[in-house]
Structure formats: structure tokens, C-alpha cells
Amino acid sequence: MSLFITIRVLDIVDILMVAFLLYQLYMLIKGTVAFNIFIGIFIVYLFWLLVRALNMELIGTLMGQFIGVGVLALIVVFQQEIRRFLLLIGSNDQVNRLLSTEKLFSNDKYEGVTSQQVKLMVKACENMARTYTGALIVITQKSELREFIRTGEGINARISDALLETIFFKNTPLHDGAVIIAGNRIVAARCILPITDKRDLDPSLGLRHRAAIGITEVTDALAIVVSEEKGKISFSKAGQLQQNVSLAELTKLLGSLTHGESEPSVPEG
Prior knowledge:
Elements lengths: L8 H21 L3 H21 L3 H12 L1 H8 L1 H12 L2 H7 L1 H5 L9 H16 L4 E5 L6 H4 L3 E6 L2 H7 L10 E5 L2 E7 L15 H12 L3 E5 L6 E5 L2 E3 L4 H7 L2 H4 L10
Parallel strand pairs: 1-3
Antiparallel strand pairs: 1-5, 2-4, 3-4, 5-6, 6-7
């Protein structure tokens, strides 16, 4: 009998891959209700192992039935997190470049946004921040957001600072909800967005900020928020919110929409 355990290179790779997947899972559910659910499921699993070790047949059989459908239960409970994980893979630039998916599934319906139109968006945010006008602007990337566009009022107009300011003016019927921009067009207003279920956010954040985080959690869109209470600008990407963004920072964050640069990154917190 061998006294030594043989470890292959593939075993090390296997361990590293599992560690990476567990870390990504933790990052996806950190600070959400799903994290508490995961802890609860883990405790139930440990209790089931204890029951089996003690040969408690009745409760072991009952819990065994529950554990047997655990995979389906996990898919139902963590459907949002699974969607975000698959989105993370599907929107990865290196993966898309390797598989050439951008060429296969590219959308030519809208022309790309120009640097001048980025300036118009920034100018609109500047004016709305100065007048304490609340706004939520969502900018599509690879995901077309059709299901969210259908919840609002179709506009399909060229990007204009005056139009954006008019939409979010407090007395207009379209000011409540989000504006969605695709390419160089404002395609819809008063759109309904999903709200994040993160529980570790600043309590002072309102529904606009939570909706901005929510839409960027489940899609690859970018979101700009103008606070009605503080007159500050925030930027959200990949479920992360950067608050008190300056006009220069906002211009830089939106710069990749006009150049083919790498996607903007937003520091956590």
C-alpha cells in the first residue's frame, strides 16, 4: 500500500478552478439575501450529514428527499445570481473575441454614439444636478434590453441634452422611471427597472440608485443617476455604484462607448 498521495498537475488545476468558482459565487451573492439563503442551505446540509452519521433513518430519509431535489431548488432560489454569473461569462471581451460572437450576433440597428453625444449626455447631467432634477439614464451595450424598453414609452430620438432635461422635468409625465439609450438614440422613457436586493447599501440611497444597481446586475448596461435630494451624479456598472462622480470622471467612464476601448470599471463600494 502506498504511503504517499499522488498529486497530478491536473489535480492542482482542479483545486484552483473550484476555488475560483467559489470566490466568484461569493462575490455574486455577497451582501444580498441570497448569501443568507446559501448559509441556511449549507447548515441544512451539515445537519443531514450528522443525521446520516448517527444512522437516524426516519429523519435521514425525509431530509434525503429534500437533498435529492437540491439542485432544482438551488436553480430556483439563485436564478438571479446564476443569470448574473452567465452574463459575466457571456459579456467577457476575451471570451467573445475568442469565439468571435460579436461578429456573429452584432446588432447594426443603431449607430454608435459619438463623442459629441457623450458631451450632450454629460451636459444634461450637469444641468439636472445643478437644478436638483432626479434622473436615471441607462445605456445599452451588448444587451438590447428589449424587455425593459417594452415597459416604457417609445421615443426613438437622437440624443439631445434638451430632450433629456425635458423628459426628467418634474412636471412631465415621463420623468418617473428610466430613460434607455441604445447607440445614438434615446429609445424609450419611463421604463421600469429591477431593484437590487443588496442589503449592505447606504440607507440614504433611493429607488433610482437601487434600480441603477439592479439593471447593471442583470445586464451589461451602464447607468447614470442624478440625485434629486443631493444634486450629485452616480455611475453604475456590473452591480457596483460609484457615487459623487465629477463631470470629467463621467466623460471618461462613457468614453469607451465612442472608442472601442475596454469597458469602464467601477471600484467597489
